[in-house]
Amino acid sequence: AQKITQTQPGMFVQEKEAVTLDCTYDTSDQSYGLFWYKQPSSGEMIFLIYQGSYDEQNATEGRYSLNFQKARKSANLVISASQLGDSAMYFCAMREGRGNQFYFGTGTSLTVIP
Amino acid sequence: EAGVTQFPSHSVIEKGQTVTLRCDPISGHDNLYWYRRVMGKEIKFLLHFVKESKQDESGMPNNRFLAERTGGTYSTLKVQPAELEDSGVYFCASSLPGQGARDLDSFFGQGTRLTVV
Question: In Å, how far are A74, B1, B28, B45, B75 from B51, measured between CA atoms?
Fold first, then answer.
């Protein structure tokens, strides 16, 4: 079974608007971490934000926030005030407490329109 | 401080040939991971080294793939003989000894785009 599901292959957003990228996950572990990475056209994977399974508050990092709904097993990324430089592929990932590897989704390609 | 470095950035080879990908992790990072993304699909785990030892190689697709990390420094991933379905982007990541799920210090390389024709 897929551990991370991203259902939006591509998204468009107007510059300065907010956008939500969806991510759902599947795990039986109580301890896990959820991550979002950005991959621009240059190829590198850039860490954006992290949410721990025991964290009660949603994580925020600048214009990025993670809408964590544990009961629904969702970890959506919200980007506020989109910028042209936000155009990239975005990957949701999970790491379970008992392992070290990441499980990734298929990614969402975000295009910011001027 | 240098990040995770991968060589080459791109490689185009013919079916049946051999290709070797290299990953130089961040100095001092005992953990080294290989991942692969086939076009349009998720990034999938291939294997995990702790120093020079293979901790988990459950993601290796078949015996045409051989990963080594001699001396616990850089790692190579050899594909021999390459097949069309091996095309994709191969990522390497490294980290310090882990803190489990809360370990945030994983750094990725820029990837090697492999095309088998």
Answer: 34, 20, 9, 18, 10
